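Entry 12.
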Amino acid sequence: MTTHGRFEPVFCTIVPPHVLDRLARHADPVLAGPARRTLQRDAFERTHRGLTTVIGAPGVAPRAGAEAGKPHRTIYDARHGTDLPGRKVRREGDEPGKDATVNRAHAGLGATFELFLTAFRRDSIDGAGLPLDATVHYDREYNNAFWNGEQMVFGDGDGEIFLDFTIPVDVIGHELAHGVTQHTANLTYYGQPGALNESVSDVFGSLIKQYTLGQSAAEADWLIGAGLLAERVTGVALRSMKAPGTAYDDDVLGKDPQPATMDDYVRTGRDNGGVHINSGIPNHAFYLLATALGGNAWEKAGQVWYDVLAGGELAQDAQFADFAALTVAAARERFGEGDDLDAVAKAWEQVGVPTS
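Predicted 3D structure (tokens):
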């Protein structure tokens, strides 16, 4: 169960609504059509998730033969439909097949499971061996991937702006990390707590990529969704933790709107109060801390973030300053006084978030 009472699972997508909104207004129907259909499908799924939350979602039963500390993955194929979960195409233990998308989804679920188990001693996203389900080939030209509170879903992209959403492992990790947040702090998906929710997913998504590639904090690119944008797009990823606001600058997508510090905090009622935009601020704080501490980011900085997320003290409506103060407390508990603790406070100071 969550540390804050009943679950309030939310519908979380990797591509922000403001990106799809801009695409949907484009004069070229080849670009606008898939974006409009994606927005419509997202709206339907978001409403469905809200209704499921009200009436209660069925629990996910442990699988027969499931072993503690081992992943229990199942991949389904929607065959370009929207009925979930779809046709079962790969079970745990099956050999890779001919469908690269299925294989990438299976591997990404495994990489996420391995990082949380190895680095944080967490058995799946709920800490109790929750089976990991994913559906691929969802809808036609669907420009998103999402966690719906129960499973992962991946679109194939339109091929013009977005490619297959299973390509970047950090996209898979990002969405599954929403499940971890759902089962721990259960952060409200609006305003600053919503931006923290998104940022936590970016942090762990990036850590999963770094762990999979064997990269140190200094070696990592700190991009979210690298490899997802099609060749025609002027950009490298959806977001940059190293330099928020620089991931793309494109005549179709516009310019990446993420701020790096509180000086440029965006106040808006769209996107649940800018959850995908203002997440750049805590993202950048984590990047600054991880690179200051050096080594593998999941070994120090990641431990501090996980301690706060799963520690039971983080309120559902936590603001940036609340989260920052808890990271300082967690670092003091883990490292004691010294340079490592000072680095935590300095990282938040650099992005303009007070820690006390």
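Annotation: DSSP finds ten helices and ten strands in the chain. The mean pLDDT is 93.
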